[in-house]
């Protein structure tokens, strides 16, 4: 039995959005139906290295397929000084029936791809049908997959990218200027679009109530730790608020600060995205104005994305097969 080693290029090549987005939607549905197991994220804090490790295991049964795996991921803010990424991830994808490790793959690219796909699922259920403009605050690596994925499910034509780093903005514009009407702009200009994705690590809100359009859908993707907070409380309170997981979002998602201060309560949360996917709660209705999706990123998303990547990589003979178990 061979284990497939897949680097970031292999993951990117085989994470086909046309299949990845429905796979992530299947994962949300499985979790809501009780057909998934996802223990809480566990942390190893390493203050001596100004970093941490996080383990994210999950199993899900989507009906036509099931999958299991674990992502080992870190956050080390000092890494760029050493020419290393702040976040590095490794995904171990296993056969649920036998526990054989089918693949070991780059989890950093996998995370970017599944995060974009999760935003696309939420946007599909919560944005206006004819959404054609998209704003992005934060021009880092996550911004690219946000646009790629959301453009799969909405007719995006105009894109406004906002970031304090002019070079990052220029790279983003250069990447997409042949496909979209893309330009640099302020946070206010980005927030006035039909769809807004925020992918920053800030702890003081940068998107005000006055800035957002009356029917804007916001994907709040940046908050992944206690204290992070991109969107003003007034926006959250005025919106149809949808989360990915209650435990994670109240601990480390966009709502963690106002929730733990008592400014925002469970009564202000409309639904989990899985409830909307399975039809238990409504997505966007004609009466809705603002909508917000608070995404922390779930292990079930990583497993679903790894399933798509592995199936295609195996078909296409991508990656490097090796005898990890020494059985051959």
UniProtKB/TrEMBL annotation:
GO molecular function: alanine dehydrogenase activity; NAD binding
GO BP, one annotated term: alanine metabolic process
Entry EC number(s): 1.4.1.1
SUPFAM superfamilies: NAD(P)-binding Rossmann-fold domains (SSF51735)
Keyword annotations: NAD, Nucleotide-binding, Oxidoreductase
Any single Pfam family the record assigns to this protein: OCD_Mu_crystall
Active-site residues from the entry: 71 (proton donor/acceptor)
Leading EC class: oxidoreductase
Catalysed reactions listed for this entry: L-alanine + NAD(+) + H2O = pyruvate + NH4(+) + NADH + H(+)
Residues annotated to bind NAD(+): 114, 141-142, 222-224, 228, 295
Keyword Ribonucleoprotein tagged: no
Superkingdom, taxonomy of origin: Archaea
Keyword Nucleotide-binding appears in the UniProt entry: yes
Family from the record: Belongs to the ornithine cyclodeaminase/mu-crystallin family. Archaeal alanine dehydrogenase subfamily.
Function description: Catalyzes the NAD(+)-dependent oxidative deamination of L-alanine to pyruvate, and the reverse reaction, the reductive amination of pyruvate.
Protein name, as recorded: Alanine dehydrogenase
The species this protein was found in: Halalkalicoccus tibetensis
Gene field: ala
């Amino acid at each position: 039995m061979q284990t497939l080693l897949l680097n970031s290029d292999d993951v990117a090549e085989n994470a086909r959005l046309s299949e990845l987005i429905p796979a992530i939607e299947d994962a949300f549905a499985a979790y809501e139906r009780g057909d998934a197991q996802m223990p809480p994220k566990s942390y190893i804090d390493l203050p001596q290295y100004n970093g941490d490790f996080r383990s994210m295991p999950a199993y899900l049964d989507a009906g036509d397929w099931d999958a299991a795996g674990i992502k080992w991921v870190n956050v080390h803010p000092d890494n760029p000084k050493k020419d290393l990424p702040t976040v590095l991830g490794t995904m171990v994808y296993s056969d649920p029936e036998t526990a054989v490790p089918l693949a070991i793959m780059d989890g950093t690219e996998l995370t970017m791809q599944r995060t974009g796909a999760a935003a696309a699922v939420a946007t599909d259920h919560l944005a206006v049908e004819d959404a054609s403009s998209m704003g992005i605050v934060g021009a880092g690596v996550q911004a690219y997959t946000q646009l790629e994925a959301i453009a799969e499910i909405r007719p995006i034509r105009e894109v406004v990218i906002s970031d304090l780093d002019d070079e990052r903005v220029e790279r983003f514009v250069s990447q997409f200027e042949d496909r979209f009407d893309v330009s640099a702009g302020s946070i206010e200009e980005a927030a006035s679009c039909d769809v807004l994705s925020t992918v920053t690590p800030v702890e003081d809100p940068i998107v005000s109530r006055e800035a957002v359009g009356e029917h804007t859908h916001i994907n709040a993707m940046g908050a992944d730790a206690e204290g992070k907070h991109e969107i003003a409380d007034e926006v959250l309170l005025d919106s149809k608020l949808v989360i990915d997981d209650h435990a994670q979002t109240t601990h480390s998602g966009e709502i963690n600060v106002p929730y733990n201060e008592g400014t925002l309560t469970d009564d202000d949360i409309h639904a989990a995205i899985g409830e909307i996917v399975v039809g238990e709660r409504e997505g966007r209705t004609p009466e809705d104005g603002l909508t917000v999706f608070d995404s922390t990123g779930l292990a079930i998303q990583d497993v679903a994305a790894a399933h798509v990547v592995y199936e295609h990589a195996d078909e296409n003979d991508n990656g490097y097969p090796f005898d990890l178990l020494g059985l051959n």
